[in-house]
Amino acid sequence: EIGYINGEFVSLNEKVIPIDERGHQFGDGVYEVIRIYDGKPFMMEEHLERLINSAKAIRLPITESVDDFKSLIMKAVEKSELHNCNVYLQITRGIATRQHLFPNVPASISMTVREANPLSDEMRNTGVTAITHEDERWANCYIKSLNLLPNILAKQVAHEAGCFEAILVRDGYVTEGTSSNMFIVKNGAVYTTPLSKHILPGITRIAVKEIANPLQINFYEEHFTEDQLMSAEEIFMTSTTAEVLPIVRVNDKPIGHGVPGEVTKKLYEQFKRKVE
Ligand code: PDD
């Protein structure tokens, strides 16, 4: 594993963040998590384009291009000597004496490269459980910002209920998970929340959309309610780290037969083929 900050590669336990750093003090920044499979980054361009969009959305000027980030990431991965790893890339509004207004200083870029620890076979084979939770986040969840307080609070509530994920509900409709996109299966077709300011445009979500078509699984981007969630045939979530993961119980009630469904399994198998 290895770390990087503002031009230097460092070990992960090195103390590198000054007290007056805006990511640290304000959560004033954006980030990405990119998976490397066998030395090859998965959908890196899409991740980097989303990073640049997130930065634009918070008016954080960055001089690096997609290609600059690409070579920086590949250099870090090489230095880490890891083949299956997660790259965490963060950009903040930089280091300046604490005050709310934007400072006139360069952005800070930092990165960690850590071994990927994939979910256990048991979790994949039996599926995971979830709770529903009020979506208490702000109105701009399409930005992958460092402000994750509502996400971590909801995830912790899920954990304390013995569950893996919290499914967020805004005005009666499912938005997404605390760190995942959410999908249901109805009459064999897949439904997921349409893109809007209220959800993150997941990269794994794009991959699943692309996979569904050749498998002849209909894919609809439509809103669904908490009731429709509970009466779904199948539920699954997607993210860079969870990939395609079945959810078999919500709020202690079984979904469908309470086991991973056929559509979810097919999509996961095809996803694995894509990244192998
Ligand atoms: N989370 N929605 C939210 C709120 C997320 O934080 C994430 C990713 C996703 C899925 O996006 P993608 O498929 O691009 O990973 C959806 C990352 C993995 C994290 O915060 O660790």
Task: Please describe the topology of this protein.
Blueprint: E1 2-5, E2 8-10, H1 22-26, E3 29-37, E4 40-41, H2 44-57, H3 66-80, E5 85-92, E6 108-115, H4 121-126, E7 128-134, H5 149-160, E8 165-170, E9 173-177, E10 181-186, E11 189-192, H6 203-212, E12 219-221, H7 226-230, E13 234-239, E14 243-250, E15 253-254, H8 262-275
Parallel strand pairs: 7-8, 7-14, 11-12
Antiparallel strand pairs: 1-2, 1-6, 3-4, 3-5, 5-6, 8-9, 10-11, 10-13, 13-14, 14-15
Residues 33, 176, 179-181, 200, 202-205, 238-241 line the site of N-(5'-phosphopyridoxyl)-D-alanine.
Describe this structure in words.
Its cofactor is pyridoxal 5'-phosphate. It is an enzyme of class 2 (transferase). This is D-alanine aminotransferase. Belongs to the class-IV pyridoxal-phosphate-dependent aminotransferase family. With 276 residues, the chain is α+β, with helices and mostly antiparallel strands. It has two domains: 114 residues, D-amino Acid Aminotransferase, Chain A, domain 1 (2-Layer Sandwich); 155 residues, D-amino Acid Aminotransferase, subunit A, domain 2 (D-amino Acid Aminotransferase, Chain A, domain 2), CATH 3.20.10. Helices cover 29% and strands 29% of the residues. It is built from eight helices and 15 strands. The strands form two sheets. Strands 7, 8, 9, 10, 11, 12, 13, 14 and 15 form a nine-stranded mixed sheet that branches. A six-stranded antiparallel sheet has the order 2-1-6-5-3-4.
